[in-house]
Each structure stands twice: as C-alpha cells, then as structure tokens.
Design brief:
Helix content is 62%, strand content 4%. With 422 residues, it is mainly alpha-helical.
Length: 422
Amino acid sequence: MCILGSSGSGKTTLLDAMSGRLGRAGTFLGEVYVNGRALRREQFQDCFSYVLQSDTLLSSLTVRETLHYTALLAIRRGNPGSFQKKVEAVMAELSLSHVADRLIGNYSLGGISTGERRRVSIAAQLLQDPMDLTSVDTQSKEREIETSKRVQMIESAYKKSAICHKTLKNIERMKHLKTLPMVPFKTKDSPGVFSKLGVLLRRVTRNLVRNKLAVITRLLQNLIMGLFLLFFVLRVRSNVLKGAIQDRVGLLYQFVGATPYTGMLNAVNLFPVLRAVSDQESQDGLYQKWQMMLAYALHVLPFSVVATMIFSSVCYWTLGLHPEVARFGYFSAALLAPHLIGEFLTLVLLGIVQNPNIVNSVVALLSIAGVLVGSGFLRNIQEMPIPFKIISYFTFQKYCSEILVVNEFYGLNFTCAPEGEY
C-alpha cells in the first residue's frame, strides 16, 4: 500500500493517528480493524509502528549497542543471551551484521552510511514487535507528482477489477465471523520504571564517554574560565589599601556569576539530541520523557563534581584564598550548586521550548537578574526595595554568595599600608 499526497496534506498525521503517536490530541473519525477485530484508540500504539523520515540515533553508539539498548527498553523477560540473539537476528535480516560494531556517527564524524542508518531505524522498530511497519519517504516534489499520476491510474484500474470486489467482500465477511484471529499486539511485558531508568542511564553515559571532546570540554571549561581570573588577579593580599577586600569580592562575584553559564552550555550542547531521541521513543511507548531527563541529570553529576574539584583545586590555592582544607570543601560545594542549577534549569526549559537559542537567552537573563538581586555584591539586600528583597530569597545566588563571603572573610585579619605609603 502507498500513501501519497502533497506536502501538508496529512500523510504523516494519518500515520501518527494510526500508530498512536498523537495520544489523546484531536478528534478521530473512522474505524480501524485488525483481523476483523475493531481496535480502540488506546490500542493503536500497542499494535502499529512506523519508521520516521529522519533517523534520530545517538552518534557515539555502535549499531549493536543501539539495538541492544532498544531491546532492553522494550522487553522484560529473557537472559542476556536471548536479547543478544534477537539483536543478531534482526541485524542479519536487515544486512547490518557487517557494520554491527561500527559507530552510528553523523554527518561531520562519519560512521555508517545513510542507507545503513535507515535500516538501523527499521531494526529498532522491529525489536518492539510491531504488527505493521511503514516507512515514510517524501523527498522530491517532482517524484511525488509523477508517482501520484501513476498510482491514480493503477487505483482506477484496481477499483474496477474483480480482485477489489472480492477483497472488500472478504473484509465485510471477516467482521461478522464468530471466531476471529487474535490481534498481534506488541509485547506488554515491558521492563519496570527503574529498569528502564538504569538502561537509559547506561546508554546516555556511554554515548557521552565516547565523545572525547565533550568530556574534555565538560571537565575543563570551568578551569578555562578560572585561568583568566588567575592571570588577572594572580594572588589576593591582606592589605586593604592594595585591594584585599575588593579583589575577594570581585572574585566571588565572578565565581557565582560564571558557573551557571558553563552548566547552561553543557545542556544546550548535549541535551537537544537526547530530547529528539526521547521524543521519538516515548511516542513509541518505550518510556516516558521524564525518565530521559532524569537519566541525563544523574549522568552529569559525577562529571560536574570532578569538573568543580579541578577548577577549585587550581583556583583556590593559587589565588591564596583562606588556607584551610575545610574552607576549600565549602568553597567547592558552594560553586557546584550554581553550576548544576544552571544546567538543570536549562534542561527543564529545553524540555518545554524547542529552540536552544531562546533557552540560552532566558537562562542568561535569569542568571544576571539573580546575581544583581540576590548576591548582595552590587547593592546590600537590606537596602533594596521590598519587591526585590522578596525576590532575592528565591534566587540561588543569594545563598551561594552568603556561603562564599562567610567562608572567605570570617577570621581573616586585614591590614592597612604602613605610614608614608599612601
């Protein structure tokens, strides 16, 4: 069967409706029968699947890993050997065995060919045991028009044929049979919530670890930002007249203001691809979108902790801040919080807004506003107008700044220049 129509005529919407991708949105007219049995709307997703026109895959995973993780998300029962056998069978059926251990790749990093990527997308759908598999390909306008003319000729001839009348009679007869074949639904024995979360966490982490540039950037970008401060300040002093207080306040202001931006850059760079994958797989019923967001949030924690420790270890002791190990720990924890909040806030907004540039601007404005209103570095919070004073209690910069100020200034003795050095 072939579905034809001009762009915007509703081909994809029809397939989305039949496969249950539209959920509860919209009003559906018509009936769907499988083996003579009428399907309810909520059963569509459990019976139909189709391969989207664009292939949305994680570039740093191999073909075998991509299909193995899909099997783990779709099927509960079975030992590791049974999962592997099913993956190997699907790869053999679609002629993917020879590229099983090659990375998916992308347009800039190479990888498997476009045709092989398409077959991987089909294999991922087959692993979910769908009854029907349809591939959408609407590329060339000229090809659409020419194909449409030919199909209309075939359709006109077919409607007049005896085969068509016989088929329609068989369909009507099937509806009235007392004993009807069972509907071949997809497997309903899917893994539990925590099992799926564990699979998603392993998949996201492996995909990141394979991307060496992303790992290096995530670990060192805070340090690169801090190196500028090191060269600019070199080392804080205890002489008030030589900037002892001003230098410390300026450093803390930069630390609190800059760390959310590095977290934001991580999310803007890494999460959109994962969001595209989760949009597709959640519509297929493999998991809920919040599970992918939680898996991403969990997988960034160890990287963020290590990145903050590298940054703090270099900057804290080189700048000569309060020389106590406990103070260093408080300093690192106080900077880890805004870094994570910046990334998680971006993550939540990216789940709502599709445009990363808009999210980038919104998070930047919120960070600037939080520093101005909540940190107290620009103006004492107690002297602000009451509305700003109330807002400051809802900013993370207020609490991070208070911790850093007390941590650095408590117990320090500052001096003035000796007489005659003014």
